[in-house]
Amino acid sequence: MADELRPETRAVHLPQPSLSGSRPIAVPIYQTSGFAFDDPAVFAEGMGRPDGPFVYGRLSNPTVRSLEEAVAGLEGGVGAVAAASGMGAVNSVLLGLLKPGDHLIAQRALYGGTAVMLADLSRRFGIEVSHVPEDDPEALRAALRPGTRLLYLETIANPMTQVADLPGMCAAAREAGLISVVDNTFASPVLCRPLEHGADIVIHSATKYLSGHADVLGGVAVFASPELHRRVWRFAVELGATADPFAAWLTLRGIQTLPLRMERHCLNTRELALRLDNHPAVAAVHWPGLPSHPSHALARRLLPDFGGVFSFDLVGGRAAGERFMSSIRLALLAPSLGGVETLVLHPATTSHRSLTPEDLARHGIGEGTVRMAVGVEHIEDIWADVARALS
Ligand SMILES: *Cc1c(COP(=O)(O)O)cnc(C)c1O
């Protein structure tokens, strides 16, 4: 047939090479919005399930599915939904599973975007929210109501790095018939696999450690059961929150070095935390690897290492915090975390500026608190920068 085609038609119908006998080493970017079928029955089948044949990019895409299977594999889940951002994953899970009149229980210290979203859920969507400490199953039991449906935790919280009692909290949630959701962004599956501790759903901002290079936004939700997977997938497809193949491809590329990077993030952070803990300009260091941290005992039971984010309080309060921020050179003054570069920020004036002074105090965040997301540079270069900024 091709021989008879006119130029206009030939230009439109491009040849698709068949790979006879070899296959690509890297996962290709399937930059296509849709898929064509030889068999109409297969076409129909792809519309109804997250693991079916590829039909249309908002439902699924081979590059995106490779990412979903990679993260599901790392977390030990049965399936995953990749989203356009971490918040896309958070919203797909919460809005996909809850309805007006439902009640959810979340830990107090939450990622800022999630805290804003939960406030919105109660204000605009009639979904009530209660907050409890991340390590208090009794408080969780006391907060239960007839309409309670879901528990929301973060493995390691920002910026004071409290560690959630995943086994205790998820067990209490299971007894009460709740779905347990854990944001595992700060730990990554290298340090923690929440499904093994009783969680039903794990969420990642893939923008952070999974992709690891500060060049892409993405999110992933991983499921312990095919039923939850199907429900959230269906809603993410409705919402249009699903991931783009190029973003998925960048994230896949990052994941290949995730364990190597996490090892260095943790090593560098340990060294910085220990040195700062002994520095005269520093009043306190908050990292669960230090015996002085309130979560230390729990963290030692739950995690093989303690992550690449920590914070510290400067002796000189706000003025010292601002001086530190303007003196740092190698580390970048920037939001986010999980990339190869070391980043610093001042929570009281940036990530947590919407909190009242009382709320800041309740979270333990001071005027002189600095948060560092430690990169993979040479430790002595990071230290030289920090020590200079402190002096
Ligand atoms: C960044 C982050 C999110 C939101 O992810 P985005 O990719 O920015 O939408 C959610 N949870 C945690 C813990 C985060 O650090």
- Spatial ordering of strands, largest sheet: 1-7-6-5-4-2-3
* Count of beta strands: 12
CATH class of the largest domain: Alpha Beta
Structural class: alpha/beta
Task: Let me know the CATH homologous superfamily of the largest domain.
Answer: Type I PLP-dependent aspartate aminotransferase-like (Major domain)
Order of helices and strands: HHHEHEHEHEHEHEEHHHEHEHEEHEH
Strand content: 5-15%
CATH architecture of the largest domain: 3-Layer(aba) Sandwich
What's the number of domains?
A: 2
Main β-sheet description: 7 strands, mixed
**How big is the Rg?**
23 Å
Question: What percentage of residues falls in helices of 4 or more residues?
Answer: 25-40%
CATH topology of the largest domain: Aspartate Aminotransferase, domain 2
Task: Supply the key terms.
single chain, 391 residues, alpha/beta, Aspartate Aminotransferase, domain 2, Aspartate Aminotransferase, domain 1, 2 domains, 5-stranded mixed sheet, binds pyridoxal-5'-phosphate
